[in-house]
Design a protein that fits this description.
By secondary structure, this protein is mainly α. Helix content is about 75%, strand content about 0%.
Amino acid sequence: MSSASVALLAAVVAAVAGGVGGWQVPRVVAWLPRPRDLAPDQPGPDYSRLAAVPGLRTAALLAGLAVGAVLGYRLGVPVALPYLHLLVLGMPLGYVDVRVHRLPDALVLPALPMAVALVGVVSVATGEPGRLGRALLGMAVAYVGFGGLHLISPAGFGRGDVKLGAWTALLTAWLSWPGLLIGVASAIGLGGFVALAVLAAGGSRRSAIPFGPMLLVGAIISAVSGSPTG
């Protein structure tokens, strides 16, 4: 089988995985439990209502198919697997963050060790176990850096952003150090662009900007940008 055929097959497999994940987005959103940091008398997000938005399933399905196909074609199997994991869980995370400015721990916390396990397994399977160490170091550096941003501006960069930032850094550093830089720079650039767009539309400088989608898109940009690996 030629390399082009292998890449095409990987794209099809990854597209199916992304599409299945997108189809399940409303179900995942509806399943989310009430945030634990809310007081008993404090109203929480109505995840059932968010899940029932018309067109959500179709939009997520199409996004999953498209992004999954690109990831599969660019990275191949099994390297794309940790990124497909990010894609499948990132779609409900990004949607919820846009709507209610939350990145639920019910998804992020179990996803982090799962991501580490996937990166480790794929690293061994591809004969490059040393890449796991770089991935973990990148995750640690990002956690400290993003944690500092949270301390400086808790309202602008929440604890969920810190955890998601560590997750995306794990994956981008796993591909390469330049990949980590591209991912972070893309996320910050997208955040700045959105903030300027909000101001241009008449919004306030204090308008809350969800940063989770920026981190997710930045990681995807890094993966498909053609940055050096190894």
